[in-house]
Design brief:
heterodimer; A: 402 residues; alpha+beta; outer membrane lipoprotein receptor (LolB), chain A; TATA-Binding Protein; 3 domains; twelve-stranded mixed beta sheet; 27% helix; B: 314 residues; mainly alpha; 12 helices; 2 strands; disordered N terminus
């Protein structure tokens, strides 16, 4: 029996031991090298693949906005990633009760579009979007081993929740065409541009690559200092004028509050079968009834306006200021939020206090509830001030109202 | 078998079965002998592994899981109600709400239910036992006496473990398909994106999913094999592998570790469900397969470095 080339155990003598030891150590270089190569690949490939900002002819902000307005993309399919970080604590059950408070169908099916939209208000989500003309659109929210699809095919609107195998069926009115795609960068960009007036600076700031396409970066900045909105960046496809990416950064810095953009996009006609939907056997189908229709329109609105939407339902709504600094105010007529001590101390009071900051000023005392974008001041005499402005601006507005 | 070898066999009688005996006198035939021996080694390993009562018991447990799920759903829905509390669904493994409408979904549910624990545990047992078990039983040095070399033995062991991955996954899938066909209707199915595909297409996707699930286990298999080269106790190797598996699964649930989680071998396991989207969403599937290949390369080469340099005394 000859010893094998790998069998070192028979070697004797110090020199042999040393050599064998080196050979042993040398073998461990292989796994270490594999780890090293993998780490280098993970670290370097994205950096190398980023070929820098594309070289595009200069364009004025005015022209770029016109390009967006003229954009007439009828057919597209792609993947959209939306990250929302409002700095809210994880609301859990509170979130769903808020939804029903905003006028959703209460005991409705889990396939109801309005019950899904609030999910987008926090965290990172992946959506798939497909459109073929004004009559056929589909949005799918990818979940773990499940998917929620909203399909608009002609006059039918289907919502399908594969997790619970429930189907929601409604009919499309004319106005819902665009609203079926509430989260595409195009709609978000249009909302931002609507607010553009003398309070806003709109500039074109270089170029970027989004979803493998060359795009211009349109930067929208509030001129007022009191706003919590730092800047809004819209990446506009240089060929089609379709907004590809929408980023809202707060003035306080840090990560973007909303970051929605295509990670992959194609302007080819999607397969016709994409928009075909027949309720699967055994699925529970919920028909939209007439009384729910208005609530649907509410929920189709931009989800970032959830807080404002809630306040719209209340009477006596006034808006102070204009542009980015506008503050909505209304009188609940009540006692305001009881502070911790008034609620008798204890857990409930402590919980309420932990959510807000106590402030005082000429207006008296109140509590400020903060998110990274929208702040609200509720005074102890029951007045509410809400806006995408800083705490100081809220207090100033309250003082001025006194 | 070459002519020379056949002649040699005639001349030397039954002794020619032993590769080393022929190799000493007739060096020309050694290569052929070794290749033949390698094939035999793999077949022997497979037979040894699959003849063990332990392996058969593991496969039986895996086959029982879909049967239990199928019967439980059949009983729960026998009154015409839906799955889950109040028919609302949402709980339980993926796809569970669709099973009553299409038995094929039982395949996906069963794989989703066994992938996090049962399947990798079975792989951990087989992989952990591969080298350490032989050492424990005192048979490792006899295996090394044969002229196959340590690298070949290690590759054979890994190939055997991989075969077990595939067999274990197929056992779950076939058992689930059988139970699904017996208890529930079959037919065209709805993908999770809401589009309809034919039953044949569905079967094709089920097979693809089974292959992806089997491939998802290659990382654990390589890890188990590496652990197995570190010790001479089969039980210790199995326990370590299964322990690592559980630890990783727990760490994968801790939100504070989200920066590390994409590198855990179990992180993208459930991405096989993306094959049921229409069109298929490849991002995470590709990440999963790449990650498994990385684990196989790192721990496979670490196992090789350890095994080819270690003193074998038992």
């Amino acid at each position: 029996m000859a010893p094998f080339e790998t069998d070192d155990s028979t070697s004797t003598g110090e020199a042999d031991d040393l050599r064998a030891g080196r050979r042993k150590a040398a073998r461990y270089v292989v796994p270490v090298a594999v780890v090293g190569v993998a780490a280098a690949t993970i670290g370097l490939v994205p950096a190398l693949a980023d070929s820098g900002d594309p070289d595009l002819p200069k364009i004025s902000a005015q022209k770029l906005i016109e390009k967006i307005a003229a954009s007439d993309v009828q057919q597209l399919s792609g993947t959209v990633k939306i990250s929302t970080d409002l700095g809210l604590p994880d609301l859990g059950g509170l979130e769903s009760s808020l939804t029903s408070g905003a006028g959703s169908s209460g005991d409705g099916s889990s396939a109801d579009p309005s019950s899904k939209l609030t999910e987008l208000a926090s965290g990172t989500h992946t959506l798939r979007v497909a459109a073929d003309g004004p009559d056929k659109q589909k949005v799918s929210l990818l979940e773990d081993a499940a998917e929620y699809s909203l399909i608009h095919d002609g006059k039918d609107v289907w919502g399908y929740d594969s997790q619970s195998n429930e189907v929601f069926h409604g009919t499309a009115s004319k106005s819902t065409d665009k609203e079926e795609l509430p989260a595409t960068p195009k709609d978000l960009a249009e909302d931002a541009l609507k607010a553009a007036d003398d309070t806003t600076s709109v500039t074109v700031d270089g170029t970027a690559q989004v979803a493998g396409r060359d795009a211009y970066r349109l930067v929208i900045k509030p001129k007022d200092s009191g706003s919590t909105v730092g800047q809004i960046t819209v990446a506009v496809d240089s060929k089609t004028g379709l907004p590809l990416k929408f980023t809202l950064t707060p003035s306080s810095g840090g990560a973007a509050v909303i970051d929605a953009g295509f990670t992959q996009v194609s302007f080819a006609k999607p397969a016709a079968s994409t928009f075909d939907f027949t309720p699967p056997k055994g699925a529970k189908v919920t028909e939209e009834d007439a009384s729910e229709a208005p609530s649907r329109e509410h929920s189709d609105e931009d989800f970032t306006k959830g807080d404002e939407e809630l306040s719209k339902g209340l009477d006596g709504l006034n808006v102070i200021g204009d542009g980015w600094d506008s503050i909505a105010t209304f009188d609940t007529g009540g006692e305001g939020i009881p502070s911790g001590s008034e609620a008798g101390g204890g857990d409930v009071g402590g919980f309420i206090d932990s959510l807000g900051d106590k402030v005082s000023g000429k207006f008296g005392e109140g509590t400020v509830f903060k998110t990274r974008l929208i702040n609200a001041l509720i005074t102890d005499d029951g007045k509410v001030y809400v806006g995408a402005v800083t705490k100081d601006a809220l207090v100033k507005a309250a003082d001025a109202a006194k | 078998m070459s002519q020379v070898e056949a002649n040699a066999a005639q001349g030397r009688g039954a002794v020619s079965i032993s590769g080393s005996a022929a190799g000493r006198d007739q060096p020309q035939t050694t290569r052929t002998r070794r290749t033949t021996f390698y094939g035999t080694l793999f077949r022997n390993e497979l037979l040894t592994t699959f003849r063990r009562w332990r392996t058969i018991a593991l496969l039986a447990v895996l086959a029982a899981v879909p049967i239990l799920i199928g019967i439980a759903i059949k009983i729960e829905t026998s009154d015409g109600g839906g799955v889950g509390p109040g028919g609302g669904g949402g709980g339980g493994p993926a796809f569970i709400s669709q099973i009553t409408n299409n038995g094929l979904f039982l395949v996906f549910t069963a794989l989703a239910a066994t992938l996090p624990f049962f399947l990798p545990m079975a792989i951990g047992v087989v992989a952990g036992d591969a080298i350490a078990g032989e050492a424990n039983a005192g048979t490792l040095r006899y295996l090394l006496v044969a002229p196959a070399g340590r690298t070949r033995l290690l590759l054979t062991k890994y190939a055997t473990t991989m075969t077990f991955c595939l067999v274990a996954t197929l056992v779950v899938a076939v058992s689930a398909l059988t139970v699904g066909a017996v208890l529930f209707p079959l037919g065209d199915l709805t993908t999770i994106s809401g589009t309809q595909i034919s039953f044949a297409d569905g079967l094709g996707r089920a097979l693809l999913i089974a292959l992806v699930v089997a491939a998802s286990l290659t990382g654990v298999a390589a890890l188990g094999l590496f652990v197995s080269t570190l010790t001479t106790s089969g039980i210790a190797a199995m326990a370590t592998t299964v322990g690592l598996l559980i630890t990783i699964q727990i760490l994968d649930q801790i939100p504070q570790l989200h920066a590390l989680q994409p590198y855990f071998f179990s992180h993208y396991w459930l991405s096989f469900a993306d094959l049921m989207r229409d069109p298929v969403y490849w991002d995470e599937l590709v990440k999963n397969l790449g990650l498994q290949a990385l684990y196989a390369a790192v721990f496979g080469s670490a196992a090789w470095a350890r095994f080819t340099t270690k003193d074998i005394s038992s």
